[in-house]
Amino acid sequence: ALDHIGFALAEVDVVTSLSCANNSVAGLVALEECVGRKALDNCFPCMNILCTYLGSIASVEYVDLRNSQLNYQSAFVLADSLCIHPSIHTVLVSNNPLGADGIRALLRLMYLNPYPPDRKMYFVDVDRCEFSAVDDPAKGDGGNGDDSLDGGANYNFLDPTGSYRLHMENPYNRAVARQCLRRWQIIQDSISFPDTFYEIRHDGVSLSSFELDEENVWQLPNAGMLTYTAVYRQKSPEAAVDPDTLNDDPTRTIRKRLSDDLFQRLMRCYTHCGQDSSRRPIIEALSKDFALEAEQVSILFNATVTSELKVFLLETFLDKILDPAHALSLLDYLAKITIFTQKASLPLGIAMPGKKKVSTKRLVRPVDIKYFIFSGSNPTGHYKLDLKTADHYMVAEHLLCTNRWDVEWCKAKGRPDVSQYGNYQCFRNEHMDGIPFKYGQDWSLPSSGTLEFDYISPHRAPKTAVPITAEAWLRVTQSIQDALSEGRLSPEVIMMCLRRVSHHFYVKCAQVDNLLALFPISNHHVQLRRDIFI
Question: Residue 19: in which H helix or E strand, if any?
């Protein structure tokens, strides 16, 4: 029914105000109780269908979808539909479980989009939308591991590079495909369509491209399975393979700047939200997609009431401000709040006013030798990092830089996507404080917590590589055998030392087998033998 309604509205194209608010959730609850929630996992909100048509109603100016069972997919569909709409000025979506991802989609694609320059967008209401209807939005699969109808979960706003498997019956997946195509339109002068999209197939049939209709809208299938790999290069081919660019962070230049008009538009949305819980996801979205000046952060700071949210705002933007020299007053506030609320953050030997001097012993942590002998040139392995310790944090920072460089290197070399989630990233099985998440270029490294993951380097021995000579390898294995026999070194230390120099030579399978023979199969050597193989 909504499909027919949306089509009719688009055909008539005389509607200026559309209200479909306060739809009762009782029917959905009754259906869940009748058939069980798991039976509905592959469904999507029917309102997504109506949201798809809104972009085709050129006359619409006001849309009210408050309390209408919209989720983060709905927000993405709505934002995609209205992202370049010339007439829309007000969108109300409060009291919907959009979550942080849905709010981010609305802000980035629709509300704070400067194109076209003469669009009339004025206000969007996202109050009380902070809760998400998806159990595990990081995977986008409802938490059950089945992403059959949600293949667009790989879409990342900063870098949409990845492999997509989209069931086109879902309006959300069609919106993801359109955003991938629109992202290419922005860079089409510098890179061709075949160099961006690979292996395009619809129900197994190979496609070469997609067509634009007379309204400059991409024509996509409404059913079947669409698969493709999209590659968006963030470095030049030369810079992507240059090791000197290891520490370069392309995301800093990709983040958008807010003009005065866009920032005023943002403040209307921010100040309208009455609770900290509603403002917090707005801050998170801004930090991921936009670069703000110190003055703009100060205005947000002054409009924020509670000290807790003020601290969150400053900690979130501290390393992302365009002109940090003008943000010293904000840093001063953060320092004052921190010194009176977090004893562990006090510098060594500094005491709280009227309190005992803080002991330095509990702030001193021994260096973890495992990461002290970390090999950045051969980083493949399993990591469990306590981010409060300096050596663990440095390893985490280095691996983030290494991942960014490896991803761009793979793009420049035309390597296939072999990532765990189809997003070209080298991280796998990521957990933060025991909670699984999916790493993306917009993820920020926290200052504390336990970060656990596997890192898989894409680099392999080149065809021209020459293995270490048999004589040299014999000396290596003999030295290891002597050290083990005499008890001078533990097997773990030997393994760490080997890893530290492993990038200087290549070995044959038989030579690895010789090394494994020094550590017989046992419960004690299981992890060690695994590390040797890796």
Answer: strand 17-19
The three-class DSSP label of residue 478 is: helix
Say whether the peptide bond before residue 116 is cis (omega within 30 degrees of 0): yes
Which 3 state secondary structure label does DSSP give 383?
Answer: strand
Helix (H, G, I), strand (E, B) or coil at 125: strand
| Burial call 361-393: b when 16+ CB within 10 Å, e when fewer | eeeeeeeeebbeebbeebbbbebebbbebebbb
- Residues 105, 137 contacting (CB under 8 angstroms): no
Beta pairing, strands 62-64 & 290-291: unpaired
Residue 248 phi/psi, 5° resolution? -70, 135
Output Rg (C-alpha) for the chain, integer angstroms.
Answer: 27
pLDDT digits (tens, 9 = 90+) for 268-286: 999 999 899 999 999 999 9
For the chain, report the end-to-end CA distance as a whole number of angstroms: 56
d(CA 370, CA 127): 47
- Whole-angstrom distance, CA of residue 265 vs CA of residue 263: 5
Q: Among residues 83, 175, 182, 174, which one has the least CA distance to residue 124?
A: 83
Distance between CA atoms of 266 and 245, rounded to whole angstroms? 34
For position 262, what pLDDT does the model report? 96
Domain ranges, ordered by start, for the chain? 2-157+159-230, 255-341, 369-455, 470-533
pLDDT of residue 496: 84
Find residue 451's DSSP bridge partners.
385, 432
HEC profile of 150-219: CHHHHCCCCCCCEEEEEECCCHHHHHHHHHHHHHHHHHCCCCCCCCCEEEEEECCEECCCCEECCCCCEE
pLDDT digits (tens, 9 = 90+) for 89-144: 999 999 999 999 999 999 999 999 998 888 899 999 999 999 887 544 444 433 33
The SS3 call for residue 12 is helix
Q: Are 143 and 135 in contact (CB under 8 A)?
A: yes
Tokens 């440095």 label which residue?
394
Threshold 0.90, pTM exceeds: no
Q: What are phi and psi of 256, to 5 degrees?
A: -80, 150
Asked if residues 70 and 49 have their Cβ atoms less than 8 Å apart, the reply is: no
Amino acid, single-letter form, for residue 428:
R
| Residue in the structure block whose two tokens are 């003008």 | 326
> 16: which 2 tokens?
């200026």
List the structure tokens of 40: 């509905």
Name the average pLDDT for the chain.
Answer: 85
Q: Which residues contact 59 (CB under 8 A, 6 or more apart)?
A: 13, 14, 15, 16, 87
| Beta-sheet pairing, 162-167 with 435-436 | unpaired
151 band by pLDDT with thresholds 50, 70 and 90: low
Contact 314, 334 (CB under 8 A): yes
pLDDT score of 350 more than 60: no
Give the whole-angstrom CA distance, residue 203 versus residue 228. 11
Question: Any residues with CB less than 8 A from the CB of 354 and at least 6 apart, and which?
Answer: none
At 286, list the tokens: 């801004």
